[in-house]
Amino acid sequence: MSGPTDDSPAAAGPVRRSRDVPMLVRRARAGDPRAVARLITLVESGDEVLPQVAAALAPYAGQAQVVGLTGSPGVGKSTTTNELVRALRTRGHRVGVLAIDPSSPFTGGAILGDRVRMQDHATDPGVYIRSMSSRGHLGGLSAATPQAVRVLEGAGCDVVLVETVGVGQAEVEVASLADTTLVLLAPGMGDAIQAVKAGILEIADVFVVNKADRDGADATVRDIQGMIALGERGPGEWRPQVVRAIAARGEGIDDIAAAIDKHRDWLERHGELRRRREARAAAEIEAIALGVLRDRIGSLRDGTQLPTLAAKVAEGAVDPYAAAGELLSQLGTG
User: Is 16 left (phi over 0), alpha (psi -120 to 50) or beta?
Assistant: First the structure.
Protein backbone atom coordinates (compact mmCIF):
# COMPACT_ATOMS: atom_id res chain seq x y z
CA MET A 1 0.00 0.00 0.00
CA SER A 2 2.98 2.30 0.11
CA GLY A 3 2.96 2.60 -3.68
CA PRO A 4 0.05 4.26 -5.52
CA THR A 5 -2.19 2.22 -7.77
CA ASP A 6 -2.73 5.13 -10.17
CA ASP A 7 -0.02 7.76 -10.58
CA SER A 8 -1.98 10.15 -12.78
CA PRO A 9 -2.28 13.70 -11.37
CA ALA A 10 -5.99 13.66 -12.20
CA ALA A 11 -6.50 10.69 -9.90
CA ALA A 12 -4.24 11.98 -7.11
CA GLY A 13 -5.91 15.39 -6.81
CA PRO A 14 -9.51 14.27 -6.28
CA VAL A 15 -8.50 11.60 -3.75
CA ARG A 16 -6.39 14.04 -1.78
CA ARG A 17 -9.30 16.46 -1.33
CA SER A 18 -12.25 14.09 -1.65
CA ARG A 19 -15.02 13.59 0.87
CA ASP A 20 -16.69 10.95 -1.30
CA VAL A 21 -16.64 8.19 1.32
CA PRO A 22 -17.83 5.24 -0.85
CA MET A 23 -15.20 6.05 -3.48
CA LEU A 24 -12.44 6.43 -0.87
CA VAL A 25 -13.32 3.13 0.82
CA ARG A 26 -13.52 1.36 -2.54
CA ARG A 27 -10.07 2.64 -3.54
CA ALA A 28 -8.62 1.90 -0.10
CA ARG A 29 -9.88 -1.68 -0.43
CA ALA A 30 -8.09 -1.83 -3.77
CA GLY A 31 -4.83 -0.82 -2.10
CA ASP A 32 -4.62 2.86 -3.05
CA PRO A 33 -2.44 4.48 -0.33
CA ARG A 34 -3.77 7.95 -1.14
CA ALA A 35 -7.31 6.83 -0.34
CA VAL A 36 -6.13 5.27 2.94
CA ALA A 37 -4.29 8.49 3.81
CA ARG A 38 -7.36 10.59 3.02
CA LEU A 39 -9.63 8.42 5.17
CA ILE A 40 -7.25 8.66 8.13
CA THR A 41 -7.03 12.42 7.64
CA LEU A 42 -10.83 12.64 7.79
CA VAL A 43 -10.72 10.59 10.98
CA GLU A 44 -7.98 12.72 12.58
CA SER A 45 -9.70 15.99 11.74
CA GLY A 46 -13.07 14.83 13.06
CA ASP A 47 -14.68 15.68 9.74
CA GLU A 48 -18.48 15.77 9.59
CA VAL A 49 -18.42 12.75 7.25
CA LEU A 50 -16.77 10.65 10.00
CA PRO A 51 -20.04 8.77 10.78
CA GLN A 52 -20.25 7.84 7.08
CA VAL A 53 -16.65 6.61 7.17
CA ALA A 54 -17.37 4.48 10.25
CA ALA A 55 -20.52 3.03 8.65
CA ALA A 56 -18.68 2.17 5.43
CA LEU A 57 -15.86 0.45 7.35
CA ALA A 58 -18.09 -1.46 9.80
CA PRO A 59 -18.32 -4.65 7.66
CA TYR A 60 -14.54 -5.06 7.85
CA ALA A 61 -14.19 -4.68 11.64
CA GLY A 62 -12.22 -7.34 13.47
CA GLN A 63 -10.46 -8.70 10.39
CA ALA A 64 -6.96 -7.53 11.40
CA GLN A 65 -4.78 -8.64 14.29
CA VAL A 66 -3.90 -5.53 16.31
CA VAL A 67 -0.53 -5.57 18.08
CA GLY A 68 0.50 -2.73 20.39
CA LEU A 69 4.11 -1.83 21.19
CA THR A 70 4.92 0.35 24.18
CA GLY A 71 7.87 1.15 26.40
CA SER A 72 10.07 3.99 27.54
CA PRO A 73 11.88 6.23 25.01
CA GLY A 74 15.11 4.68 23.76
CA VAL A 75 14.21 1.01 24.18
CA GLY A 76 13.99 0.49 20.41
CA LYS A 77 10.26 0.50 19.68
CA SER A 78 10.59 1.86 16.15
CA THR A 79 13.45 -0.49 15.28
CA THR A 80 11.50 -3.46 16.64
CA THR A 81 8.39 -2.37 14.73
CA ASN A 82 10.45 -2.05 11.55
CA GLU A 83 11.83 -5.57 11.94
CA LEU A 84 8.42 -7.01 12.83
CA VAL A 85 7.05 -5.54 9.60
CA ARG A 86 9.83 -7.33 7.72
CA ALA A 87 9.02 -10.65 9.41
CA LEU A 88 5.28 -10.29 8.79
CA ARG A 89 5.84 -9.44 5.13
CA THR A 90 7.95 -12.59 4.80
CA ARG A 91 4.81 -14.48 5.87
CA GLY A 92 2.82 -12.72 3.16
CA HIS A 93 0.80 -10.48 5.50
CA ARG A 94 -0.35 -7.00 4.54
CA VAL A 95 0.77 -4.74 7.37
CA GLY A 96 -0.39 -1.37 8.63
CA VAL A 97 1.62 0.70 11.11
CA LEU A 98 0.30 3.56 13.23
CA ALA A 99 3.20 5.33 14.93
CA ILE A 100 2.02 7.83 17.54
CA ASP A 101 4.37 10.75 18.17
CA PRO A 102 4.13 13.30 20.98
CA SER A 103 2.80 16.74 20.14
CA SER A 104 4.10 20.01 21.50
CA PRO A 105 2.02 21.45 24.36
CA PHE A 106 2.89 24.91 23.01
CA THR A 107 2.40 24.69 19.23
CA GLY A 108 0.48 21.43 18.93
CA GLY A 109 2.98 20.29 16.29
CA ALA A 110 4.83 16.96 16.11
CA ILE A 111 7.97 15.78 14.37
CA LEU A 112 6.36 12.50 13.25
CA GLY A 113 9.81 10.96 13.06
CA ASP A 114 8.88 7.29 13.49
CA ARG A 115 7.91 7.04 9.84
CA VAL A 116 11.38 8.27 8.89
CA ARG A 117 12.88 5.35 10.82
CA MET A 118 10.83 2.86 8.78
CA GLN A 119 11.90 3.91 5.30
CA ASP A 120 13.00 0.33 4.56
CA HIS A 121 9.36 -0.39 3.68
CA ALA A 122 8.52 2.88 1.91
CA THR A 123 8.20 1.27 -1.53
CA ASP A 124 6.49 -1.96 -0.40
CA PRO A 125 2.87 -1.95 -1.64
CA GLY A 126 1.97 -4.41 1.13
CA VAL A 127 2.86 -1.95 3.90
CA TYR A 128 1.14 1.26 4.98
CA ILE A 129 2.86 3.45 7.59
CA ARG A 130 1.18 6.46 9.16
CA SER A 131 2.60 8.74 11.83
CA MET A 132 -0.04 10.39 13.99
CA SER A 133 0.32 13.20 16.50
CA SER A 134 -1.02 12.49 19.99
CA ARG A 135 -2.47 16.05 19.94
CA GLY A 136 -2.18 16.22 23.71
CA HIS A 137 -4.15 13.01 24.28
CA LEU A 138 -2.84 11.15 27.33
CA GLY A 139 -2.19 7.42 27.52
CA GLY A 140 0.34 7.12 24.69
CA LEU A 141 -2.14 7.15 21.79
CA SER A 142 -4.07 9.65 19.72
CA ALA A 143 -7.83 10.02 20.24
CA ALA A 144 -8.25 9.08 16.56
CA THR A 145 -6.24 5.84 16.83
CA PRO A 146 -9.20 3.42 17.17
CA GLN A 147 -10.87 4.76 14.01
CA ALA A 148 -7.52 4.79 12.18
CA VAL A 149 -7.17 1.09 13.03
CA ARG A 150 -10.59 0.56 11.45
CA VAL A 151 -9.41 2.31 8.29
CA LEU A 152 -6.41 -0.01 8.02
CA GLU A 153 -8.64 -3.04 8.63
CA GLY A 154 -10.90 -1.80 5.85
CA ALA A 155 -7.87 -1.39 3.61
CA GLY A 156 -7.18 -5.10 3.92
CA CYS A 157 -4.34 -5.15 6.45
CA ASP A 158 -3.89 -8.55 8.08
CA VAL A 159 -1.89 -7.08 10.97
CA VAL A 160 -1.92 -3.54 12.38
CA LEU A 161 1.03 -2.52 14.56
CA VAL A 162 0.37 0.42 16.91
CA GLU A 163 3.51 2.01 18.32
CA THR A 164 2.82 4.33 21.25
CA VAL A 165 4.43 7.65 22.12
CA GLY A 166 6.82 6.16 24.65
CA VAL A 167 6.36 8.35 27.69
CA GLY A 168 6.52 5.93 30.59
CA GLN A 169 4.31 4.34 33.22
CA ALA A 170 1.04 6.10 32.34
CA GLU A 171 1.13 4.69 28.83
CA VAL A 172 -1.31 1.83 29.29
CA GLU A 173 -4.17 2.82 26.97
CA VAL A 174 -2.74 0.68 24.18
CA ALA A 175 -3.84 -2.45 26.09
CA SER A 176 -7.48 -1.50 25.55
CA LEU A 177 -6.89 -1.17 21.80
CA ALA A 178 -4.61 -4.12 21.02
CA ASP A 179 -5.27 -7.84 20.83
CA THR A 180 -1.68 -8.39 21.99
CA THR A 181 0.46 -5.85 23.83
CA LEU A 182 4.26 -5.91 23.75
CA VAL A 183 6.12 -4.02 26.47
CA LEU A 184 9.70 -3.30 25.44
CA LEU A 185 12.50 -2.98 27.98
CA ALA A 186 16.23 -2.44 27.73
CA PRO A 187 18.94 -3.23 30.26
CA GLY A 188 20.69 -0.36 31.97
CA MET A 189 17.76 2.07 31.71
CA GLY A 190 15.99 1.33 34.99
CA ASP A 191 13.26 -0.44 33.05
CA ALA A 192 13.34 -3.60 35.15
CA ILE A 193 12.16 -1.60 38.15
CA GLN A 194 9.65 0.41 36.12
CA ALA A 195 8.13 -2.73 34.61
CA VAL A 196 7.27 -4.27 37.95
CA LYS A 197 4.92 -1.39 38.71
CA ALA A 198 1.32 -2.50 38.45
CA GLY A 199 0.15 -0.70 35.30
CA ILE A 200 2.94 -1.82 32.99
CA LEU A 201 3.10 -5.34 34.42
CA GLU A 202 -0.63 -5.88 33.96
CA ILE A 203 -0.88 -4.71 30.35
CA ALA A 204 1.98 -6.82 28.98
CA ASP A 205 1.13 -9.98 27.09
CA VAL A 206 4.73 -10.24 25.93
CA PHE A 207 7.81 -8.61 27.46
CA VAL A 208 10.61 -7.92 24.98
CA VAL A 209 14.05 -7.32 26.50
CA ASN A 210 15.65 -5.47 23.61
CA LYS A 211 19.34 -4.63 23.24
CA ALA A 212 19.97 -7.97 24.92
CA ASP A 213 23.67 -7.81 24.04
CA ARG A 214 24.15 -5.16 26.73
CA ASP A 215 25.39 -5.83 30.23
CA GLY A 216 22.53 -6.41 32.61
CA ALA A 217 20.24 -8.16 30.12
CA ASP A 218 20.22 -11.39 32.15
CA ALA A 219 19.33 -9.47 35.31
CA THR A 220 16.48 -7.67 33.50
CA VAL A 221 15.07 -10.99 32.27
CA ARG A 222 15.32 -12.49 35.78
CA ASP A 223 13.59 -9.46 37.34
CA ILE A 224 10.67 -9.67 34.92
CA GLN A 225 10.32 -13.42 35.25
CA GLY A 226 10.40 -13.07 39.03
CA MET A 227 7.60 -10.51 39.02
CA ILE A 228 5.52 -12.64 36.64
CA ALA A 229 5.94 -15.59 39.00
CA LEU A 230 4.55 -13.50 41.87
CA GLY A 231 1.36 -12.71 39.96
CA GLU A 232 -1.81 -14.59 40.83
CA ARG A 233 -3.23 -16.58 37.91
CA GLY A 234 -6.03 -19.07 37.72
CA PRO A 235 -5.87 -22.33 35.73
CA GLY A 236 -5.46 -21.67 32.02
CA GLU A 237 -4.76 -17.93 32.41
CA TRP A 238 -2.15 -16.40 30.14
CA ARG A 239 1.38 -16.16 31.52
CA PRO A 240 3.28 -13.29 29.85
CA GLN A 241 6.20 -14.42 27.71
CA VAL A 242 9.66 -12.89 28.08
CA VAL A 243 11.68 -12.66 24.86
CA ARG A 244 15.21 -11.41 24.25
CA ALA A 245 15.99 -9.44 21.10
CA ILE A 246 18.59 -7.27 19.43
CA ALA A 247 16.28 -5.52 16.99
CA ALA A 248 19.04 -3.41 15.43
CA ARG A 249 20.59 -6.65 14.15
CA GLY A 250 17.28 -8.38 13.44
CA GLU A 251 17.93 -10.94 16.18
CA GLY A 252 15.06 -12.36 18.23
CA ILE A 253 12.36 -11.00 15.91
CA ASP A 254 11.17 -14.49 14.97
CA ASP A 255 10.89 -15.26 18.69
CA ILE A 256 8.73 -12.14 19.18
CA ALA A 257 6.51 -13.19 16.27
CA ALA A 258 6.23 -16.69 17.74
CA ALA A 259 5.20 -15.25 21.13
CA ILE A 260 2.54 -13.11 19.41
CA ASP A 261 1.25 -16.22 17.60
CA LYS A 262 1.15 -18.18 20.86
CA HIS A 263 -0.84 -15.42 22.54
CA ARG A 264 -3.23 -15.20 19.59
CA ASP A 265 -3.88 -18.94 19.83
CA TRP A 266 -4.58 -18.60 23.56
CA LEU A 267 -6.96 -15.67 22.96
CA GLU A 268 -8.99 -17.66 20.45
CA ARG A 269 -9.08 -20.88 22.48
CA HIS A 270 -10.30 -19.13 25.65
CA GLY A 271 -12.74 -16.70 24.03
CA GLU A 272 -10.61 -13.80 25.21
CA LEU A 273 -10.20 -12.33 21.73
CA ARG A 274 -13.95 -11.74 21.46
CA ARG A 275 -14.09 -10.33 24.99
CA ARG A 276 -11.23 -7.91 24.33
CA ARG A 277 -12.77 -6.70 21.09
CA GLU A 278 -16.16 -6.19 22.70
CA ALA A 279 -14.47 -4.18 25.47
CA ARG A 280 -12.68 -2.16 22.80
CA ALA A 281 -15.98 -1.46 21.04
CA ALA A 282 -17.58 -0.41 24.33
CA ALA A 283 -14.73 2.04 24.97
CA GLU A 284 -15.13 3.45 21.45
CA ILE A 285 -18.87 3.95 21.88
CA GLU A 286 -18.35 5.63 25.23
CA ALA A 287 -15.65 7.94 23.85
CA ILE A 288 -17.85 9.00 20.93
CA ALA A 289 -20.84 9.62 23.21
CA LEU A 290 -18.74 11.65 25.63
CA GLY A 291 -17.31 13.64 22.73
CA VAL A 292 -20.80 14.55 21.55
CA LEU A 293 -21.76 15.50 25.10
CA ARG A 294 -18.67 17.70 25.46
CA ASP A 295 -19.53 19.46 22.20
CA ARG A 296 -23.06 20.12 23.44
CA ILE A 297 -21.81 21.45 26.75
CA GLY A 298 -19.32 23.61 24.89
CA SER A 299 -22.12 25.10 22.80
CA LEU A 300 -23.84 26.17 26.02
CA ARG A 301 -20.96 28.52 26.76
CA ASP A 302 -22.28 30.77 24.03
CA GLY A 303 -25.63 31.04 25.85
CA THR A 304 -26.58 31.99 29.37
CA GLN A 305 -27.31 28.66 31.07
CA LEU A 306 -23.76 27.58 31.94
CA PRO A 307 -22.53 31.05 33.04
CA THR A 308 -25.67 31.47 35.17
CA LEU A 309 -25.12 28.12 36.90
CA ALA A 310 -21.41 28.86 37.36
CA ALA A 311 -22.25 32.18 39.07
CA LYS A 312 -24.68 30.43 41.43
CA VAL A 313 -22.09 27.79 42.35
CA ALA A 314 -19.40 30.45 42.89
CA GLU A 315 -21.62 32.39 45.31
CA GLY A 316 -22.74 29.25 47.14
CA ALA A 317 -26.37 29.42 46.10
CA VAL A 318 -26.22 26.02 44.37
CA ASP A 319 -23.87 23.07 44.83
CA PRO A 320 -21.92 21.83 41.77
CA TYR A 321 -23.73 18.46 41.66
CA ALA A 322 -27.14 20.13 41.52
CA ALA A 323 -25.84 22.52 38.85
CA ALA A 324 -24.47 19.62 36.80
CA GLY A 325 -27.82 17.82 37.08
CA GLU A 326 -29.63 20.90 35.84
CA LEU A 327 -27.16 21.27 32.98
CA LEU A 328 -27.65 17.65 31.93
CA SER A 329 -31.42 18.09 32.03
CA GLN A 330 -31.01 21.01 29.62
CA LEU A 331 -29.09 18.65 27.30
CA GLY A 332 -31.88 16.10 27.46
CA THR A 333 -29.72 13.56 29.31
CA GLY A 334 -31.04 14.08 32.84
Answer: alpha
